[in-house]
Fold each of these.
Amino acid sequence: MSELTPIVKEPITHTQLVRYAGASGDFNPIHTVVPIGEQAGLGGVIAHGMLVMGFAGEALSTWFPRRNIRNFQVRFSAMTRPGESLTVTGEITGEREVDGEARVSGKLIVKNEQGETKLKGTFEAAKS
Amino acid sequence: MLKDISKKEGYQFPPYTFVVERGKIKEFALAIGDMNPIYHSKEAAQAEGYRDVPMPLTFPTVLDMWGGNDFEAIIKSLDLNPLKVLHGEQEYQYYGEICAGDELYVQAKVISTEHKRGMNFFLLETTYTNAEGETVLIARSNVIERVGGEQ
């Protein structure tokens, strides 16, 4: 149906993961301490899933007024590492009425430059 | 040996209260690289009709991690191997506006557990209530523990 303008993010850096750990309070060391990531069998650190969802959330509140967002759901499908550049794309897939409120529903995908899907999500937003 | 994760069903995490702060919202938006002005300045937010700086869509993770149910608390409560924990799914349902200055009461519990394909799944649900007693947000989170290797 209706495509939304893609949001292209800067490459993720180790520093960004440290910064996100501090901001969010998620200090799981697999996101910030390389030897721990290796010990966990991940070959290094991986980005917080919630950081990637945060990119998707940034896109959503760019596409729609923040206050109109009613539902936002994602499934994480691949790990993201420092150096990867992610892009959020989305589209409106339908409309429905909930408790007298007209809403649009849609889906979004976050992918890296190679086209690997990091997460898929759905959302609903009130029509303004 | 397999641990019986079903015993964790119905487990209620200790409730906590959290005051949403403008500076914390800005720090969080900067970490994501979200430069939407409504998250960075009260004036910009009010110009868009918000009471104060609104909570970014994924900010509830800050409430959880800084408010009480951080990574350490979750692995301890659910008896997880910290090196084997992954985040499978996350959902938010937004019922009311949450802005800087709001105090929220937060209660999380384990809704269900499942063991399949060498992994343990825990579905957590968190309810966020404002000072007026209104449920303004519900979060659902699927936490995965990779336990493979135990045939």
Amino acid sequence: MYTYDTYDQAMVDARVAEFRDQITRRIAGEMTEDQFKPLRLMNGLYLQLHAYMLRVAIPYGTLDSRQMRMLAHIARTYDRDYGHFTTRQNIQYNWIKLEDCADILEELATVEMHAIQTSGNCIRNISSDQYAGAAADEVTDPRPWAELLRQWSTFHPEFSYLPRKFKIAVIASPEDRAAMRLHDIGLELIRQDGALGARVFVGGGMGRTPMIAPEINPFVKADDLLSYLEACLRVYNRYGRRDNIYKARIKILIHEIGADAYRRQVATEFAHVKTLGIDPPLAELERIAAFFAPPAYDAANVEPDRTDPDFAVWLDQNVKPHKQAGYAIVNISLKPIGGIPGDATSAQIDVMADLAEKYSFDELRVTHAQNIVLPYVAKRDLYAVWHALRDAALADANLDLISDIIACPGLDYCSLANARSIPVAQKIATRFADMDRQRDLGELKLKISGCINACGHHHAGHIGILGVDKKGVENYQLTFGGSGAEDVSIGKIIGPGFDEDGVVDAVEKATEVYKALREGDERFLDTYRRVGLEPFKEAIYG
Amino acid sequence: MVEFRYRTDEVTEQPSVTLDAFLDQSNATAVRLEPDDDARALIPFLDRLTLIEVAFPKYRDGRGYSAARILREAGYQGELRAQGDVLVDQIAFMRRCGFDSFAPESSLNPDAVARALAHYDHAYQGAADAVVPIWKLRHG
Amino acid sequence: MKLLTGNDLGSGAVTWWTGNGWSIHVEDAADVGEHGEAILHAEEGARRVNAPYIIDALPTEDGPRPAHIKDRIRALGPTVRTDLTLKPADPAAGDWII
């Protein structure tokens, strides 16, 4: 894990002091809400339906037990005893007081955490692969690169008033576990002629106009990367649309001028920016990488005892292969049947912190699917981990199954939402509560957004659900065929919308069509891609 | 009105002209850039300019930050003024991008501006000011 | 009827204009009639409310009922956590929203 040096610590400490000063000026009336809003947003503070909401950054989804415990402490002390893990690997608190906010950030700073740039029209928290450092298929650990980008983008003076928000993801595996091409910039680290560099995709995103990012550069060398990104951002800052908030993301610029024109403009700008000397030497990447050295693995390779059938089911569903023999990656589902996707109580957060400290070299990850990962668990400890998780109601064996639903907070919490998301997730999970039935359906990624902003990633769902406001009544549209993985695609709306119960019925009918038509070990997505929409439409609307 | 100026030379008396007017004919030594003007159009003339005024009609429109850096990167040494909807909490970033004078539409509290400029001792990235980025401090 | 609502600047709590102040209970909300804009500007200027806006509502026996579901959820709390609403002891309170 990266550890702050005195410079890093000074930056977050200064930010706390700065925001405290800004809050004081706001409460004293020296700033209007309109003037204060971008400042609080750049510290992750929203005004939501019921209260202020604070989004705390978990850079590239990596944290240690001390930081995890701090998240529990914040929930217990300043909120209502729970937190919500988000699709951008962050955590949100729903009941924060403006008057407490500086104190919260001060507490977070003591464990090298912050809420910097978790909102606003700036470069947001860098996201990454939750299996980084543990995945067998990675070319390199993407986290040092993500940390390099975190530092470069933090308080970037030129790019803090961009046309719109800007999200960057970094992966280093052919399997995309971070929806990389649905980001404003997606970086896939690759090796070319022995040297590491990045394939650069620009202009992806979900929201109102979903787009898959085109490749803008097949290989940018490590020591050119920041200059190249600076060029990408500068072209966007100068020419991205500012006349219409719905057309202000970089995907619209690239769509309008074309990937080739954008690529040329970036190349010209890069040729200039590269002369400015803004790229750190490779020694800086190496300095950061040293913090992410592999842990001191135990050589023993002890397979777990599979006698307990419930444990065996969890092993098969939630535990993934590790690059180190004798170790495994444990996924902790935050999707109990009937629960709120991504929510965890303070007590559960503490349990996960304890398990990380005891069994996972003190490390945890947050996934974009709103689950938690223990990345380095020795196989011989898996049974003990599972037992402890079960005692904390954290052992649901439903990873990537139909009840492992991504859902935005929706109209229960969010001031932008048009419809509630969570109750739909709860009803679907409850309908499919039978675990044998879920496992029979196999991998089925169901994602629910409560409005067109698509925070619930519905465009990337094998089955996606979009809540809309139909004359004051909640209505739900179904989309099929999306994927946020390496087989990335945008789902298509299948027809007229449904009410809450109607959409649950429609999902169930779709699964029946899939079961009738699937061949071999096809997933729902594969069958849909092969047979097309018609048989599904007939069953649902026929 | 210029409220904050971080230069010691004399203030230019000449009123600034629009970019179009300047490129047309003018012998003016002061130009005003609107957000959608291309700052690079001025690069051939930087030697004879003493003031470039960059308009911020709305503080949320950040194009002026790029304009400022582009001008400084091209070697412009004269006064670079941010004019318009310039607020306390934007000034530190503007300084980093090369602005050295500020003409906010609504008067700013000088103490608040001084505090805003003093919050950070260091910066992670190089920009148009003299701040040495943290990575360089780390690696000498 | 028209109601004026917003959030408390410091705590962020949802509040309703009662005619002479602010309450967290929508039952206390007063019809602002045509005066909503004037009250809104005065109260926002004095920082007694943040992000205020005017909504339509219907008078009922139990007090005003906001016309839009969003404001009914604001008035009560999240439907998926009745324990965190203003009426935690009443599990049926959520029925008022739908």
